[in-house]
Amino acid sequence: MPNCFVSDAAGDVISITPVCQDDFLDWLATQSTQVKNLVAVNGFSAKPNTYCLLTDHDGNLEKVMIGLVNKDAFFSFGILPKILPTGCYQIIAPNFSSQQLEHAAIGWGMGSYQFKQYKKLKDYTATLLCKDYDIAQINRVIAAIFLVRDLINTPANDLYPEKLAEVAVDLASEFKAELKIIKGDGLSKEFPAVYAVGRGSKKQPLLIDLRYGDLNAPKIVLVGKGVCFDSGGLQLKPASGNITLMKKDMAGAAHALALARMIMDAKLPVNLRVIIPAVENLISGDSFKPGDVINTHKGLSLEIMNTDAEGRLILADALALASKWQPQLILDFATLTGAARIALGPDITALFSNDDQLVQDIVSVMSEEQEPVWRMPLYQPYLESLKSEVADFKNVVTSESFGGGAITAALLLQQFITPEIKWAHFDINAYNATTTPGKPVGGEAVCLKGLFKYIEHFVRIK
C-alpha cells in the first residue's frame, strides 16, 4: 500500500469535508456559529482548490474544508497532502457516490507523489484513511501512476534501453511472467527498423517481449514506444525546441508497463503480451540517414525522409509482431507527434482506431474516469501522401504545408496491423508543463484508469 493511505487508524482521525462552490451558502447555513466564524476569519468561500483548516478550542486541527467546482473534481484533493500537517484524515461526504469517493482518494494519492531520486525533499506525512473503499484498486491505480511518473522523470543517463528492460525484468519477477529480451544480431535480423533507429547509440537497442496469464484467455497486446532519448537523429532537434524534454519519449513504454502491472496485479483472466521496442535516437557515424530505405519485421520497406520521425519506425516492427500473434485487441501508446498536441492541446489524448465499437466503448469509460480522449480520423486518402518512389512508404509526408501529421503517422502504423484485429493507438503527451492540483510538473500518466476498466470488461465478456 502506498504510504499516503492507511486502512486503519490507530488514533484520532481528522475529517475532510468537501464543499462545492455553488452549494457553499446552503452548507454554511447548517453550520455552528463557531464554524461560521472560523470560515469568515479564513475567508473561505469554497472557491475551487482552496481549503480551510478548522481548529477546536485548544487549537488542535479538527476539520479540513476543501472547495470544489463539483463533486467530480477529484484532482482538487491533490492539494491536501502537501499542505496538511502530520495526521490521519478521512473524507466525510455522505452525498458522494462510492466512485466519487474512490476518485477523491486517487486525487489525494496523485498529490502525494514526489520525485526524490536526485533531490532531498521533505516527506508528506498526512495519510488518508481508506477503510471503506476498494483500497486494492486505489493502490493499483496510484502504483501505476507513480511508475509512469518515475520512469518519465528519470533522465536518459539513468534510463536507457537496458535500464528500461530491467523494469520489465522486475515486473516479470514480481508477477511470474515470461520475459524475452531481443538484441544484437537477433534484433537486426528480426526487427530491422528498431535496430536501424537505435544503432547510432553506444547503448544498444533492444525489444522487450513480456507474456503473462492464461493461454486460453483472450489475447491482448500492449505496445509502447520506448525511445529513451530522442535527439532527432541527424535531423537534430533545435535547442530552442523541446529537446530538453526528450527523456520523456519513452512515455509510451511506461504506460504499457504500468497498465500491464495493473492487469497482472488484479489477476485479470487474460493472455497478455507486452511489446516494447527500446532505443536511443542519437547521432554517430552509424546513425540512420535521410534517404535510407529500411526493411521492417512485416517486410514492408520504409524510406527515411526525417530521422526525427523515428517512433513510427520502431512501432512498425512492434505492431507487426503483435499482429502476427493474432490477438483480439492491440493497444499502443506513443508520444508520437507534435501535431496531436497542436490539434488537442496538452491534456486531451488523441485516439485512433480501426473499430467504431472499440472507440465508443473506450470513450465511454474514459468519460466516466475523467480521462479525456478524442477520436481522430484514419482518413485513408492521406495515405497517398506517404507513398514512396523507391520504397513501400515514406516515414513522413515531405510537403511542409500538408499538415495532418498525427493522422498520417497513425495511417502508417495501421499498415502494420492485420485489419481484422481491433486496434487503438493513443498519441499521448504524458507531461505536465505546470503544476496543478494532483499533477506536479513532470511526467504524467494518462488513460490508465479507463483502459484498465475497459480491459476488465473486455476479458470477462469474451
Question: Mind explaining what this structure looks like?
Answer:
Helix 12 (356-368) links the parallel strand 15 and strand 16. The chain is elongated. The protein folds into 2 domains: 5-133, Leucine Aminopeptidase, subunit E, domain 1 (3-Layer(aba) Sandwich), CATH 3.40.220.10; 140-461, Aminopeptidase (3-Layer(aba) Sandwich). The chain has 462 residues and is of the alpha/beta class. Helix 8 (192-198) runs antiparallel to helix 10 (311-324) and helix 12 packs across helix 14. It contains 14 helices and 20 strands. The protein has helices at residues 24-29, 33-42, 80-83, 98-111, 135-153, 161-175, 184-190, 192-198, 251-265, 311-324, 338-344, 356-368, 405-414, 448-461; strands spanning 5-6, 13-20, 51-55, 61-68, 87-91, 126-129, 178-183, 206-213, 219-224, 226-230, 271-281, 293-294, 302-303, 329-334, 349-353, 373-375, 393-394, 422-427, 431-432, 442-443. The model has no long low-confidence stretch (mean pLDDT 96). The strands form 4 sheets. Strands 7, 8, 9, 10, 11, 14, 15, 16 and 18 form a 9-stranded mixed beta sheet that branches. The chain has a 6-stranded mixed beta sheet with strand order 1-6-5-2-4-3, with helices on both faces.
Low-confidence stretches: none
CATH topology of the largest domain: Aminopeptidase
Q: Biggest β-sheet: count, sense, barrel? A: 9 strands, mixed
Radius of gyration: 24 Å
Distance between the termini: 31 Å
State mean pLDDT (0 to 100 scale): 96
Shape: elongated
What would you give as the CATH superfamily of the largest domain?
Answer: Zn peptidases
Secondary-structure class: alpha/beta
**What portion of residues belong to β-strands?**
15-25%
Helix content: 25-40%
Helix tally equals 14
Total domains, how many? 2
